[in-house]
Structures are given as C-alpha cells and as structure tokens.
Amino acid sequence: MSPPATIAPSILSADFGALGAACSETINNGADWLHIDIMDGHFVPNMTFGAPVVSKLRPHVQRPRAAKGRGTFDCHMMIAEVGCDLYTFHHEAATTSTSASEPAGTSSTPTSPKEMIKFIHEQGMLAGIAIKPDTPVDVLYEVLDSEDESERPDMVLVMTVHPGFGGQSFLSSCLPKVSQLRARYPQLDIEVDGGLSEKTVDAAAEAGANVIVAGSAVFGAQSPGEVVRALRGAVERVGKGRE
After folding, report:
1. Rounded CA gap, 115 and 67, in Å?
2. Could you give the CA distance from residue 151 to residue 141 in angstroms, rounded to a whole number?
3. pTM for this prediction
4. Catalytic residue among 32, 37, 154, 189
5. How many C-beta atoms surround the C-beta of residue 53 within 10 A?
6. In sequence order, what E strands does the chain have?
7. Is position 37 annotated as part of the catalytic site?
8. Is 145 noted as a catalytic residue in this protein?
9. What own/partner pairs with CB < 8 Å and gap ≥ 24 does 17-23 have?
10. Percent of the chain with pLDDT over 70
C-alpha cells in the first residue's frame, strides 16, 4: 500500500501581515501540514522565520493528534523545540559542519546525519533529511538502511528548486531521484518542494512523491481549497494505480 497523499502548503508565500490567520485558514481549506522554511542567512543567502514566529503560529493550528497527522508543522532546515513536529535538515549542511557539545563550543568532529536524526527523535520530534538538486540521491542510502531504527529518517525531502527563495521554476531533472527512492523504499514518505503546482504535480506524483509542498500555487490562488484538492487528487490517483 502506498503512503498517503499529504499536502503541505509553504507559508513562505502567505501574507506575513496576517500569518496566523493564513495558517489556520489553509488547514481549514483541507491542507494536511504546513511547510515552514527556516533560513538563517548562512546555508542559504536569505532569512525567513525564527523561533519566536513559529512559537506564535502554534496556537493558530491544533497540534496533530498522531505522528504526521493534520496540523503537522513541517519545519525545513534549522529549528526545534518551538512548535515543530517534523524537523527536516539538509544532508549537505550536516556533512559540511562539525559537532560541538554546545552552541559556543568548537569541534573537529564532522556531524553525523544518523546521529542528528537520533537526537531529533530523542527530542520527541519526527526527523526528515533533505537533499539539494545537485546532490546525488545515493548519499542517503547509508542513512535509510541503518540497522538502528532511531537513526532512520521519517521522511526524505527532494528539493526541486535550489533552496533559498520562493517562486522558482520546477526542476524536473530532480525527479529521477524521487523514482529511485520510491523503488527502493516503497513505504517511505517522499516530499518534493519547489515549483509545485497543478501543472507540475502529476510528474512529481508519477515519480513517487506523496508529500507535496506548494507555496504560491496555494496562497496565490483565488480558491486555495480547490488547489489543495487538486494536488491531493493527483497523488491519490497515482497511489491507487500502484496498489
């Protein structure tokens, strides 16, 4: 059985002047999760939300009653302990950084993605791992095949744009990575983020993605609920065909 269709509008495209109301309305329009891009100005050149903003958004959306349930805050990149349910970090950021015991400390020990995932799980959150368009998918196999379940991610995010800014065009060249993951891990939640809309979701779903992040396609639509239903329908049609 295929994993369920999950629609996660990216609030990067929402009205920042009424963000809490926009989040609540989006869930009421049928979205499953909210995708929250946390950018620190280092890994990518842009800056977005910080911990105080995410913590203030949490009261506007009921926490999920079960793992990956409705209302999940799908936090992409660099935040924890302020309302996130699913913490997704970049493989590239982990493997090019070092592991220190405290923020002010230093270390020469490279960060282990598997240890990072285990730590996230120990904090009571789900863990996701992301890869950029230029990163080959096979770097994830060692993590996904770990014998220790606590070191395995709950989701993989395949970026279909270069991270840092919204409104970029969909990179279909990233979809073979999705297909390879789906063939190797049939039950894995595979998320795609970047340039997703009613025009591109079919290709993403056919490749094997079941978690769809869409920003301007949802928040810029006259009828956001209709767009959410269309995105979900595309994933569900493909899922039924695989059963």
Report:
1. 21
2. 12
3. 0.84
4. 37
5. 18
6. 6-9, 33-37, 72-76, 86-90, 126-131, 155-159, 189-193, 211-214
7. yes
8. no
9. 19/53, 19/57, 20/56, 20/57, 20/59, 20/60, 21/60, 22/219, 23/57, 23/60, 23/61
10. 88
CA–CA gap between residue 79 and residue 36 (Å, rounded) = 10
Contact 127, 153 (CB under 8 A): yes
Rounded CA Rg of the chain = 17
DSSP for 21-42, please give it: HHHHHHHHTT-SEEEEE--BSS
Closest CA to 227 of 4, 26, 24, 22: 26
Which of the residues 32, 74, 193, 202 is marked catalytic?
A: 193
Residue of 72, 102, 100 lying closest to 88 (CA atoms): 72
The answer to which of 30-34, 70-74, 93-97, 177-181 has the lowest mean pLDDT is 93-97
- Contact residues for 233 (Cβ-Cβ < 8 A; gap 6+): none
Other beta carbons within 10 Å of 121: 18
- Tokens standing for 195? 């340039």
Structure tokens at 142: 């060692």
What pLDDT digit, counting tens, does each position of 78-112 carry?
Answer: 434 456 789 999 998 888 766 545 544 455 677 88
Q: Return d(Cα 14, Cα 53) in angstroms, integer.
A: 14
Sheet containing 126-131, strands listed edge to edge, beginning at the edge strand earlier in sequence = 6-9, 211-214, 189-193, 155-159, 126-131, 86-90, 72-76, 33-37
